[in-house]
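Figure S4 source data
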Amino acid sequence: MKRLPASYRDPSGYIFLDGDHLRRQINPVFFEEYSAAVNAGIYEKLFAKGWLIPHREVSQDENKIILEPEHIPFISYPYEWSFTQYKHAAQLTLRLQMFLLEHDFSLKDASAFNITFHNGKAIFIDTLSIERYKENEPWRALQQFEMHFFGTLLLAEKYGAQHLKTLSHQINGVDLKETSKLLGWKSRFHPVIYPNIHLMAKDNGEAQTNTAEKSPKISKESQLKILKVLEMHISGMSLSESTEWTAYYDQTNYDAASFGNKKQLIHDWSNALDAKTAIDLGGNDGTFARELPSSIEQVIVSDIDQAAIDYCYKKELESSDSKILPIVIDLMQPSPSIGFGNNERKSFSKRIENLQPDLSLALALIHHITLTGNVPFEMSAAFFSRISKHLIIEFPDREDSWVQFILDSKRDARHLFDDYNLSAFAKAYSEYYHIDKKQKIEGTHRTLFLMRRK
């Protein structure tokens, strides 16, 4: 048995690995709460709604109850979500709390890390957050909700998507006093923002100096009204950011024939691999991930651009059987390991290496990594080889318009990149891969490679 380092904050229980099986232990201190939820049919109702990750009870004795949750291949973190994903995670938390209140239960915490994305949508994964409701007791997790969700969304809406990354360096959520200052004085007149941010920040400060003061009482009906208004406000929030990547495929140097040729090559090559899992690194809006064969069970689409990933996510919501998990990742500075001992939340690189997808796609990516990021071919080859057995990678040569644009921006330093060429690329990657297929994409200055890890 190996206890997960991320599972230490709640004395009610913890997550551990039993061989290859992820399991949850419930400690005696939480037996009554768990039994109450079971007897009330809470878990089954939430499973049916698709709001809570399903689990089965493995064993029970006087010292522990063991649950085995449904397997989620890859856990994404809040700082890897697009704006709409973040919104939907916040809304799920509020809807879950409202549902629980109506059934005389409540969430004891509202951490954004209690949510991940699975089968195309947000899902709650912390079974032990559900406890019995105490009459007229305020929702004690509301402040955490503001710090993890509402404050972050407000700052992102006002100042930009970079604020969606807040939990990567403030794991316990935004500082409400600082958030109050950043939102400005006009927001103090807003009927939702004032009580949930400004007043909460003020009350929190006063609570530090008067900890003996009892919490005010509030009826269940009043709580439901407050939560509904908050959920409606979040539902209407938006982020109007247009970037150069949002309409990337409308401005590439492919014509319709060459674009179709590239799609066909990727489909045919990947189909021959019998792959079950894949990752599309720099996958933009998921266009090429959707060309992968139907036999693939999950595709992670990562991209630096929040707007492109947001579009990808919204498109997947239209699918009844989504296999694509979109996440916002900058490969030049991917999500780090954070938390206590740098072990509480694993880095993107560690999680994807542990996953070991069967196939990686790196399309229209290498010139950005090499020429903009100054990463040598040897280093990118080593990185990709740690992720998966097979790699489909696209190499644009020096005649490609995007490559010329980047090289022109180097000005006097252009000569430092004379080794950016097809032969140098193939030589460096041959240290880590067998090159099984190589095909120039007709009508372009780009070559597609299928590689197999040595």
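Figure S5 source data
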Amino acid sequence: MLLKKLMAILMGLGGLPGLSGGVQAARPPQPAMDAPGECRDSAFLQQHPLTETLRAEPFVIFYTRSGDNAPPLEDTTGSGTPDYVKNVAIQLQAANQYYQKMLRLTPPLEQPRYRLAKAIHVYLFDLPRGNGMAFDEVTRVKGEDGNWLPCALTIRISSKLNQPLNPTPAHELFHLYQYGYTQFKVGWLLEGMTRWIESAYNGEIVMSKKLQARPPLKGAELYALRYSAWPFWQRLAREKYGTVTLSPELEAVRYLDGNPVFRTTTLPGGEALEPLLTRLQELSKEQSRQANLPYYQWPEKLQQSHQFDDVICQAMEGIECSR
């Protein structure tokens, strides 16, 4: 009470001598423009106990052998790890090599945005909807012993996929690559580009004759799409960039049943990915400076905002993007 009276008196007198504007609360320091985001605490493993792990660098795959969250437990190799889990690891490691060595992309854990992350955690459980999710924040969880595990990026994968040919693990991993480059999270960019990249695992996506005859997608028609925006990226890449050819080492990678991980040996226009994502990285920073926001700490609502659609589209080699 005495402190409140003293503060009231000081404010009434115009504050302490030598201080203009009265008593002011100290402002928290403004984070540096290139400061990484926080490593947030997560209770996920307390809510979904996944007590088994498979390490496949840089991934740590968490799963369980019991309950609704358990994947199929068949173990044809007798290794003690279910085939389902091993096939997820095979796809993730092959995709990671493909994105780095073939598409020449910087892996998420080497990006400045994610310098607090030490691994990529993959949680296999019975998702309430969809096949997978990738998160752009760095988090940490408690292990079985109650101690915090190192900070990590997170992917959640359904434990009920039609294995091994479902490309969800590679799809979600590519989102982490995108997040490492850019803050923009609109569907036509994230999902459209990723669906086009999936052709490496599904076989080449071929445009129908009807789709080929249509003018290129642009403006509001393009921006309203998500997965169906893939023709925009395929057309852009093929017109302006060269083909990526799979290395013999990756071509030889097989799932446990002998099926190849990669269903095509070429990605026409694949050389587009590195320059396009680098341009988006530069564009994110430009918008950050204009808004006086740290590069890697945009509010989620702003990341998903369509206010940047025209800016993003026009940055892609000067394409006509008007609405």
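The longest helix spans residues 83-102. The first strand starts at residue 39 and ends at 41.
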